[in-house]
Amino acid sequence: MKSILGIWPVIAAGAVIFGTWESALAIFTPDGFVLPPPSAIVASFFENFDAIWIATKVTGFIVITGLLAGVFLAVLAALLVTRFRLGNETITPLAVAVNAIPIVALAPIFNIWFGLLSPRSNQAIVLALVFFPIFINTTRGLSNVEPNQIELMRSYAATEWTITRKVRVPNALPYFFTGLELATSLAVIAAIVAEYFGGRQDALGNLITGSAALAQYDDAWSAVVAGTLIGLMLFAVVQIIQLAHPSIKGRRDT
Questions:
Q1: Which CATH number do you get for residue 89?
Q2: pTM (2 decimals)?
Q3: To pair with 5 at 20 to 30 A between CA atoms, which of 54, 75, 120, 188?
């Protein structure tokens, strides 16, 4: 019940924002304004629903597969960094260096490596962008364990793998989900920006750029809305998983 009631402030704020947006454009009618009113964007969304749906599936596939690969590699790297000193000395600097590279620099390189129309190019860009927040947060969670917990486990002759499984991993779950929440939006951004440089022509990125080039800004913004919905859906999935495991929420609050 509390979660349902907590939605109303968000709905009210959204109504005020979009109502003000619609009213302001109706009153001032600025010439050449590239941000259409919400009503025009919604109308365009449903008028072009078939094309948007196809583009959403194409981009969504890139987002989800790239995100899953990034999560797997980030968690694996975090476990190696926590377990082995050599891993910390090699993987962490490399992750920081990759995170500092702009997407616009990676996209042309990956297109050459994997092919201009290959989905692997855009998947690699999504992977590169989501890797860092998950890796850093998970590593912190695996490392920030109470020393007395480790000492207690070692007093029972527990192996390092047992300590990781019984102590470090449960402690790291809230940190991991924090990184995953950040990664869901980054994955959508990475996929759409990557599509500006290559990939299928029926994806959201190309739909946005093509519509904007023809000054069809309501169509461009309706594609932006579709990308936003992908990010919101992924974020909601992460929230549902956490709600299904109250222990994660409890650890984060403490």
A1: 1.10.3720.10
A2: 0.85
A3: 188
